[in-house]
Write a structure and sequence with these properties.
95 residues; four-stranded antiparallel β-sheet; 31% strand
Length: 95
Amino acid sequence: MILEVAILDVKSSLTAEFETAFKIASSIISSMPGYISHELQRCIENTNRYILLVRWQTLEDHTVGFRQSPEYQKWRALLHHFYDPFPIVEHYEVV
């Protein structure tokens, strides 16, 4: 299992819209091959910051299967305009 981690800094005036769009986008990512689960959490101290945790069966399920799919273009259109700056995404594995 691979854990994808992204810190999402959302433009402060758009957090409500982001959360609405993310609910729609959740159905996109959860339909992808290799997807296990995901969660979005909002920061208490910095309320326009979120952390996205996505569990994938393999790294390639995310980097190739999802990122190179037509579904990713829909995800991107729904969410990417909310971020400032654009998030860095990292992948982790159990040790």
